[in-house]
Design goal:
Layout (H helix, E strand, L loop, with lengths): L3 H9 L15 E4 L6 E4 L6 H7 L12 H7 L4 H21 L2 E2 L2 H12 L27 E12 L2 E15 L5 E5 L4 E8 L5 E8 L23 E9 L2 E6 L13 E6 L3
Antiparallel strand pairs: 1-2, 2-3, 4-5, 4-11, 5-6, 6-7, 7-8, 8-9, 9-10, 10-11
């Protein structure tokens, strides 16, 4: 399995790694100046310990998890399910670890969407233009091919990294579930499963074009011959007319990094 330093060298050389995508805790705000706005910690917000305590694995998403939600969570492996429930805490840990974030509008909007995934005040106005006051689960989505941009937060010693813009396809599976497929670079295919009215789970697989493994598989979570690809899962939501896939872990990363999350944003149609 490649080391952390080798993985960074590959990414810098243009071999883009597909990460599973995570969520975020509240207690952060966007502050802007004329040059480059930053994301800073909100002293009035809960600390990491408080957020972690509130994310009880036995009561997912603050208790907002119906029987349908529990059925969707049951599709995941134990570790993936626990990771999904822990995503709000993971993102807050990440932002606390990396400090103020400077970036372009797309980067700030991606971070803002992740923040609102665990915002208890869902009616609170967003700080950034284009980010809706509330998030909506992508139960329905217009099909077709769109641009999609992947951003990493807390990767190695980089606070933020825009990995690249690619092409993604929004479609539907035979059972009617929304599907999202990354068509260029390193690939993935995920299906969306209902959790609540704010976000859905996504689960599927990442792969190279010549790899046959394309489905989430409890028995074989890692692709044969390449531990950088395999089962992926995370949270999906719509904000500002755009779907965002948010995840937390990096396949093939050694040692694992619990202060990392990523956001893949699909352009609106």
């Amino acid at each position: 399995m490649p080391s952390r330093s080798k993985r960074f060298a590959l990414a810098a050389a243009g071999v883009l790694t597909i990460c599973t995508l995570g969520a975020l805790g509240s207690g952060f705000s966007i502050e802007a100046d004329a040059g480059s706005p930053t994301i800073t910690s909100n002293p009035a917000g809960p600390d990491v310990a408080e957020v972690a305590a509130s994310q009880d694995v036995a009561a997912p998403f603050g208790g907002n998890c119906s029987e349908e939600c529990e059925t969707s969570l049951a599709l995941l492996s134990d570790s993936d399910r626990e990771g999904l429930i822990d995503l709000p805490s993971r993102v807050q840990r990440t932002l606390a670890a990396i400090g103020p974030i400077k970036g372009d509008g797309g980067t700030k909007a991606a971070a803002e969407v992740a923040m609102h995934l665990s915002d208890p005040n869902v009616e609170k106005a967003a700080a950034l233009p284009g980010v809706e006051e509330t998030l909506a689960a992508p139960f329905e989505a217009e099909g077709g091919d769109v641009d999609c941009t992947l951003r990493w937060f807390g990767f190695l010693d980089q606070p933020v990294r825009t990995v690249g813009t690619h092409r993604c396809r929004i479609g539907k599976a035979a059972d009617g579930a929304v599907t999202i497929e990354k068509l260029t670079g390193e690939r993935f295919l995920v299906h969306l499963a209902p959790l609540n009215d704010r976000f859905s789970a996504y689960l599927g697989r990442s792969f190279l074009p010549d790899q046959d493994e394309r489905d989430y598989d409890l028995k074989s979570p890692v692709n044969a011959g390449n531990a950088n690809f395999g089962n992926i899962s995370g949270l999906a939501t719509i904000s500002g007319g755009q779907i965002a896939l948010i995840g937390g872990s990096e396949l093939g990363m050694s040692p694992p990094d619990d202060t990392f999350f990523s956001v893949l944003t699909l352009s609106g149609r």
